[in-house]
Each structure stands twice: as structure tokens, then as C-alpha cells.
Description:
heterodimer, A: 228 residues, disordered N terminus, B: alpha/beta, Rossmann fold, Rna Polymerase Sigma Factor, Chain: A, eight-stranded mixed beta sheet, two-stranded antiparallel sheet, 14 strands
Amino acid sequence: xxxxxxxxxxxxxxxxxxxxxxxxxxxxxxxxxxxxxxxxxxxxxxxxxxxxxxxxxxxxxxxxxxxxxxxxxxxxxxxxxxxxxxxxxxxxxxxxxxxxxxxxxxxxxxxxxxxxxxxxxxxxxxxxxxxxxxxxxxxxxxxxxxxxxxxxxxxxxxxxxxxxxxxxxxxxxxxxxxxxxxxxxxxxxxxxxxxxxxxxxxxxxxxxxxxxxxxxxxxxxxxxxxxx
Amino acid sequence: xxxxxxxxxxxxxxxxxxxxxxxxxxxxxxxxxxxxxxxxxxxxxxxxxxxxxxxxxxxxxxxxxxxxxxxxxxxxxxxxxxxxxxxxxxxxxxxxxxxxxxxxxxxxxxxxxxxxxxxxxxxxxxxxxxxxxxxxxxxxxxxxxxxxxxxxxxxxxxxxxxxxxxxxxxxxxxxxxxxxxxxxxxxxxxxxxxxxxxxxxxxxxxxxxxxxxxxxxxxxxxxxxxxxxxxxxxxxxxxxxxxxxxxxxxxxxxxxxxxxxxxxxxxxxxxxxxxxxxxxxxxxxxxxxxxxxxxxxxxxxxxxxxxxxxxxxxxxxxxxxxxxxxxxxxxxxxxxxxxxxxxxxxxxxxxxxxxxxxxxxxxxxxxxxxxxxxxxxxxxxxxxxxxxxxxxxxxxxxxxxxxxxxxxxxxxx
Lengths: 228, 413
């Protein structure tokens, strides 16, 4: 890269409009305008970039991979190279309006510790994760008798970074156990795109828990510390 | 694992010094080629330079080098700040028959992170230095003799102030980036604090927002080694023999702090130097002793001991964020992009020092990024080739440049 960029004309417009993932779109819709955010495991910075540009958000990302770091720096995003499993000790209590963990929960070693840390530094936290209770995964395991692979979870069992797979019901149990208040939970259907309209969102939330656990490949949770 | 010291050939001079690169030819398309140091005299008339100590200085000579072409509107300027013992010769070579390259030659040149095909790079010898810029070894116009210890004490702020004066003299009001490692990183940070409207981005590498007691202790022992040298003569040694032994000891000790324990051990281990068994005398038994001796004596001959005293003192004093009020005041107007980088085996200014800086900047919601690189080379890593490190430097600088282009196109439309 460093040897070739001089031959390419520099980009006149520093604008990387990239498609958000379906769960990222939902997360973006949950974030209030002008919020201070911390995006944990921000990857290539797509969501962070979107929030800063379109939601006037302030804040930064945390990323462990060098590829992600380079991508974020190239986008001009403030990004901190670090391991979220080490905690968020560099941040004071309640420093952020939202702390976001999008599609990263399944890869952390200490999910409860990370969630506690998020609740400490953030007023609200947003967590999205692939739902291992999705019918497609259940069916694959049932039929093939082997660890299921999906476009979202493409790795072999022996080299997957996703070491903490859970279902929507599992996550709800964890929230209850940790005394976390679920403000909103949005199971995302595998078809028809994200439930953008308020009506559709409302309908999706009405789904019985067990049905949502069966139908949603991904779920997004908006959480806060429980009262008392 | 590769050879842990690919660049530590016999000609390696240690941190912040020119070192011999393997077989660079003048046709090397990634080299800036032959360069020369320029000198300019500033503050020769009118107001003198006012220093943080309250003292004033005039006239002041500044030695600097430039690489690449300056654009017609000077929007492609990058200022490089050298560390304790560096100089203005950051890239290229001074003589066609001398293979010695500038101290950051691997980073400055066509296609390199500080890409001379696009950027105009300036590097000046620091105030108080001994390589062309006014310092204790310069002639005091009032006496016709070297200043020696009559040279006023200086700060990192003073060093940045003189750099700013140099750029003003060259007709440059804004720089795209200020970059430096170690003490150079402190100077880059100082720029972002003192000249917020003049700096688009600051690259602060292997540096710290303040010296720890241990850092100051190392500097204090180094100064003691120099001032206890029988040849020191209260700093007035320019007529006779110089306190080379003291300076050499200072350098040997400092040099240990520039390398990682593992790196040093992997290079030398307990290998004996030119002998089969212990001498059972106070001889140089071990290879590492011989190496350090060589580093020390080379440095002792070419560097000015008084400069070493003054510059280490300037580092000791550096503390832009001593308390919350001062921090808030100093950071209020800062809007440069800041990129803080550290290396995992650096123990002189370890990663926690960079994180401390990032924490302060984050607390005040500054636009700061932080990256730690893996390297076996300790503090010296900032001078040495590393793919990821260079990619990050390039990505940050390219982004600054593209944003500036973007702003200009928007401004024109």
C-alpha cells in the first residue's frame, strides 16, 4: 500500500459511503443525534463513520486488529488499538451516552466482564449478536450432525474467533441474571430487511420470545443498568 | 521470527543517529538522494526570541534540511522533529561516496510514509543542539567565545517556538503534519498545543506527556557522568580536551534504555568478545560491553556534552498537563488530529505512557487515535522498518492530505 499509493490519484472526497450491515442499521436508528459513543470492536469503522457523519455523534472506536486499525485511520476515525477483554479502565464512569458492541460479543473471552464494563462507562449500551437459536442453524446441526456454518458464521469449529455463541433466550437469561434492564430488543428477520418502520418494529417486538429466537438470525438489544 | 536486529549492522550508531543502511545505491528510487543542510540566521534584528525561562536569545542560527517539492500554496508541508541526539539530516545522503543516510531515511522518500513525491518535508536541528542550530557550543556574539553554560536553559516549548519562527521565515503558515519519535513526539505534541491553527495532524511516536521519576533519574545520572568528568571544567571545555568520557558513559547508559532486554540478549547473549575464556581481570570480557563502549566513544567524540545537559533538562521540564485546570486550558483550542503510537517492548517510554496521553486527550474529547505495534527493538523501534507501523503512518498522513484537498475543493466551489 505504502509503495503504491503515490501512483494513485489522491481521493478528492474523503467519503466512504459503505452499506451498513442490517444490525448496524438498527443500531444507528437507536442512537440519538449528537450522542457521545464508544464503538467496541469497531472493525473497519463503517458504523462509527456513519454515526459521526449522519448522527453528529462524537466518540471513537476500539479495535484489536491491525487491518481494522488501518481502515479506521484511512476513514479519519478516532480509533484506539486495544483489547476489550482487558476492560475499559481508560474511561470514566458514564463517559458515553452509548457503548456499542456490534457482532463482537461472540468473540470476547469474558462477556460478563465486558458487559459490566460497558454499563459502567456508558449510560446505555447496545449489543448485537448472531442468534445461535436461528432455525437455519438448528436445522443444519440436526441434519448434518456437524457444527453449522452460515454466511455470518463461516469458520470451522477449530479456528473460529466466535467462542461465545448464544441464543436470544440465553442472552435474555444473562440480562436477568446480571440485573440488566432491557429497554428494547429487536430480533431481525432473515427476510424483508430490517424492521425500519415503527409499526414493523412494534410488531417484531410482539413476537413471542421463543418464536423470535427461532426466526431471528441476529438480535439487537438496547440495555441499561437495572434500577436497584 | 526474523533476525531481531536487521538494521543493527556494525555501523549502527544507536537511537536517533544516522546508521548505515545495507547497500543503498544512488539510483535507489526510494531515496531522496544527495541532500545538503541549509543554515539561516533568525532573530538577527528586531525582537529576540523569548524563552520560557524569561531569558532572551539573539541572533539564532538554525540548520535544516528539506526534501521534496513545496507546492505553490505550501499546503504539503510536513515538519519532522528529531529526538535527543538527532539532527537536521533526516533523509538521503550528504556525499555520493558516503553510504551514511539520514536518521529517518527509511520513512522519508518517494513512496515512503513521508512521501517526497507529494510532500515537502522539513527537519531542523533543535534549539540547544550541536549540529548547526544555536546551542551551548555556538559563539556568543557578546564575548566571541562559545556560550558554554551561559547559554540559557531551554524547554520543549522553546524548541517548537524556534521551529515556528523558521517556518514563518520560509513563508509557511500551516503544516499538514508534525511528526516525531521520543523527544520528537513531545515537540509534535507541543505544536498541537501551542499552534493549534497551524497543524492539521500531529504524530506522537514512542513518547510521553511527561517524564517519570525513573526517566528523570536516568537523565540525572547521565548529567552527573558529564559534569563529574575531570575535563568538564564548568562547561567551558571548548579550548581544551572535552568531557568525552563522561558523555560516553551517559550515552552507554541511555543506549541500554533504547533497546529491549530481550533484544539485547538475543543480539549479544553472554558471548565473549574476542576471547575464549574470562580474563579474570578488569578487561572487556563480554561482547555487549564492547558494543556499548563503541557506542559511547563514537558518540562522545561527535556530540557536545553541554547540549546533552541542556536537552535532557528540557525533557525533564516537559509537562504540558500538570493539573486539570492547565490541561483544560491548553487543550481548549486544540483541534488537530492526533495519532499516538507506541511499541510493546519500549520500556523507556512504554505503552502506558502513550495511553496516559490518549486518556487525557480523550477526556477532553480530542480527535485522537492510538496504536501499539509489536516490535522486538524497544524504544529504538520508531526508527526501524516495520510494515504495520509504516502502513499506519501512511494511512494517517494520506487521510490528512485528502481531507485538506477536500476542504480546498469545497472552499473553491
